[in-house]
Amino acid sequence: MGSLSPAKIVLPNNDLEQQTITTTLEIETKDFDYSKRSQWLRAAVLGANDGLVSTASLMMGVGAVKQDIKAMILTGFAGLVAGACSMAIGEFVSVYSQLDIEVAQMKREKEREHGGGEREDANDEEKESLPNPLQAAAASALAFSVGAIVPLLAASFIREYKVRLGVIVAAVSFALVVFGWLGAVLGKAPVLRSSVRVLLGGWMAMAITFGLTKLIGSSGLN
């Protein structure tokens, strides 16, 4: 009887320790994944929203003076390619500059330490969480293209001019709400406020582009 009691006490403690270790590892893994993915998630959301608004605004601007579907589609496609390249290059340069700053800071901190292999291990772990310029650039270009495809697809199969403009506005409005919701979820911000802000911003961009192009076109430049 006395010999069985220690076994009953040890086993639950071991199980409890294993559960604690497992929970800790899961938390650390989740934290690591979030910090590693935050950079390209931010670039993806911003890139998609920029691609959607800028391409739709370009197409609406051209549609203000030319009712030809071919001109509108070509304008949207040119905006997609130019915007994706611009976003990729801009994101690459920006993130690479951030990477240089963080690496330089890590080197300065390492030089202050006079010893320990433990510091080397810490630096190795920190390097793994540094932003990746190529990853951010690729995510930004891809997301911009995804956003820009929305108005292109909306306009590609509609010949009637007024219906085409209405479908573009409707499709872009829906996508703006989705991107606003996604950005709010990723940033843990109020969903309704973020979605409305993104929607109103997209409407303003399209309306201003359409109105100014229509004004210039009506003065005889078209």
From TrEMBL:
Membrane topology classification: Multi-pass membrane protein
GO BP term (any one): intracellular manganese ion homeostasis
Database matches in CDD domains: Nodulin-21
Keywords: Ion transport, Iron, Iron transport, Membrane, Transmembrane, Transmembrane helix, Transport, Vacuole
TM annotation in the entry: 40-59, 71-89, 136-158, 165-186, 198-217
InterPro entries assigned: Ccc1_fam
UniProt-annotated location(s): Vacuole membrane
Annotated catalysed reactions: Fe(2+)(in) = Fe(2+)(out)
A Pfam match: VIT1
Principal location class: membrane
Family the UniProt entry places it in: Belongs to the CCC1 family.
Functional summary from the UniProt entry: Vacuolar Fe(2+) uptake transporter.
Official protein name in the record: Vacuolar iron transporter
